[in-house]
Design a protein that fits this description.
By secondary structure, the chain is mostly helical. It has helices spanning 12-34, 40-59, 62-78, 86-122. Helix 1 packs antiparallel against helix 2 (40-59) and helix 2 crosses helix 3 (62-78).
Amino acid sequence: MSNQPVQTVSTSSDKAKVVLAVCAVIAGVVAFYFLADKPTAVRAAALVAGLIVAIALAWTSASGRSFLDFARESVRETKKVVWPTRKEALQITGVVFGFVLIMAIFLWGTDKLLEVLLYDLILGWRR
């Protein structure tokens, strides 16, 4: 018995809800910039209102609900990430800088060697 993925068919009303949710987000962002002469609290309220309306619309559609579930799972997974300590981060950064310095010196030396070989020995152009 094989596990075949089940493809859900979204209705046109679900698609319309998602389109309206995207429009609500865009309206919130446009309102944030359109109200540039208003206090920051009013601008932020317009943006947050657009986002809340978009989330409410998306929550009522099947595809929007699955997207919000995915976003929730993503946040849960990022909480499981083990970040390096400050000492480890500085050590890794030092290794990267050291490698970049060594590669820069190597490439400079290779460039100078090829310059001498090409211009002085092969072409005979003296500067």
